[in-house]
Every structure is written in C-alpha cells, then in structure tokens.
Amino acid sequence: MAQADEQPAIIEEKIVRVNGEISIRQYSKGRFLGKGGFARCYEFTSLESRKLTASKVVPKASLTKSRAKQKLMTEIKIHRSLHHPNIVGFEHFFEDSENVYILLELCTNQTMNELLRRRKRLTELETQCYLVQVISALSYLHGHRVIHRDLKLGNFFLSDKMEIKIGDFGLATKLEFDGEKKRTICGTPNYIAPEVLDGKQGHSYEVDIWSLGVVAYTLLVGKPPFETSDVKTTYRRIRMNAYSFPENVPLSESSKNLITRILVTDPTKRPTLTEIQAHEFFNQGNTIPKTLPPSTLACPPSAS
Ligand SMILES: COc1cc(C(=O)NC2CCN(C)CC2)ccc1Nc1cc2c(cn1)c(C)nn2-c1cc(Cl)cc(CCC(N)=O)c1
After folding, report:
1. Is 128 near ligand 1, meaning CB less than 6 Å away?
2. I want to staple 206 with a disulfide (CB 3.0 to 4.6 A). Which of 15, 86, 166, 267 is the partner?
3. Do residues 14 and 24 lie in contact, with contact meaning Cβ atoms separated by under 8 Å?
4. In the annotation, is 150 catalytic?
C-alpha cells in the first residue's frame, strides 16, 4: 500500500449534498510535519479557503481491526466536541479510498519536546506561564468529564502566538457518570500514573494530575523524574515513587514542594486543579505573563 508520501499532492474530499449533488473540496498536501502511531502529519492548505491545517493522515489499512477503528472514532468524537484556547482546535475530518484525514489547528512552533530539546530546561517563570495554561485546559476537560490520559511534552503544541495547546486525544476517554473508574492500561511510560500500572482499583481524573506533576518536574529539571533506559525499571520507580531532585539543578522550595505534593502514589491524596492553582508556586507575587515571547524558544526570558 502506497505511503501517504507517494500519493497525489492534491487530496480530494467528496461531499454529497442533501439534494444528492456531489461537490469536491480540494486540499494541497504540503510538508511532512511528523508521525505518531499509524498517523503521518502534513501541512494541508484548503484550495477553497487557503486555510492551513495540520492534517493527520491515517491509512485505512491500519484500521482493519474494529478496535483500531473504534479508537479513532472515539478520538474524533471527543476532540471535535472540545473548544478551549489551550486545546488544539478540531477543524474537520473526512475520508477517501485510502485514508482518514483529521484536519487540526496548525501550531507552527511545534511541541514542548522540541522546545525543551533546545533549551535543556525552563525557568520558573516560563514553567508558571505554561502550567497556568495547561491547568486551564485541564479544568475545562475534566469539567466535561474528559480524561486525556496521555499528557506529555510531545502532546503540548505551541501556536504561532506562543499559546500552549493540548493535542492528541488518541488515549482520551469520556466518563459516563461522576465516580466512574476506567481500567484500560494506557499512557506513555515516563508519564503514566501508578494506579494505571497497578490496574486493580481503576483510574480517573487523577491520572492527568499525576502527569501534570511529571510535566512540571520535566520542564524545571530537564528530564522526566522516573526516566531510565528500560521501561520496566521506569515502571518500578513509578510504583516505588522513586525520584529525586538533582543537586546540580537550582530549584526553589516552592517548585520542589509543588512537585512533591502532586507526585503522590495514592490518587485520593493528590491535589485538585484548584488546589494546584492556589499553590505557592503560582502565587509568589510575580506577574505571570499570559504568553512568552518567541525569543524564549531559543533562550531564557530576559531578567527584566
Ligand atoms: C509548522 O508546524 C509544525 C512543524 C513541525 C516541524 O517542523 N516538524 C519537523 C519535520 C521534519 N523533521 C526532520 C523535524 C521536525 C512539527 C509540527 C508542526 N505543527 C503541528 C503538528 C501537529 C499539530 C499541530 N501543529 C497537531 C494537532 N498534531 N500534530 C502532529 C501530529 C502527528 Cl501525527 C505528528 C506530529 C509530529 C510529532 C509531534 N508530536 O510533534 C505532529
């Protein structure tokens, strides 16, 4: 089966109107942006509106099993229902004979992974600024009974205006009722909560709170708290809550206290998003900017 790269640079969407008329919407497939799972992502331009999007192209050949098809439909159903400035916008989806196309808000400054690769680690002010936006998006998600379940730097996209946007709802789930517990094992090794690994008592919103703690540590220290070269060892360290703050990284007491308060094995003892937002780390008297200048993609914000 031809890879998406070898397919025509013009992608056509066939639209059947209610009166039976058929119209064609065309998109120009631009540069390759990256890949994730079975999806390859390209810059698409609508020939009708000239609008640019990040289009995830999922080959139908990867959707032969009903579970894979159901998973993609769940991702689309959840993501298209969400509207928040710190959640990647869902523009449109369609299919042709070969692929399913999911057109999403293009974030031209890539992800926090690339940012951290360039910067090694962020200042406290930058971490405050990004986490305030992530907490706002998480409050919205949890308020709509959605658990993301895969919060990590690679799923935090940066817009041209330097806003952070949570993307990739491929592991997200929507609770049917308050108190419902989910049991499927999922997540990314470095960010996965201990109760998901344990699997006995099910999991809920608290898994996103745990990942938020891992994200905070990773931004401030420069690497994830439980990272090792072997996934099984990482999982053991998560279960044992075995992490520490490296001596060579200057961290304030409030930074360390925030992370320690969040990375608690017992999910019932983790702080709520409201409690996190009220933590001293975010209330030190300094003004937290709404967004950071693009210069911080390459170097720390000026001291002023
Ligand atoms: C202009 O906008 C972008 C540019 C780039 C980029 O320059 N990537 C280069 C590609 C070539 N390699 C060699 C270096 C990185 C990467 C991402 C961009 N924007 C961009 C990418 C986006 C989104 C929004 N906006 C969304 C939403 N989903 N995805 C998405 C989807 C998949 Cl399946 C894979 C990837 C790549 C892995 C990753 N997590 O970044 C991204």
Report:
1. no
2. 267
3. yes
4. yes
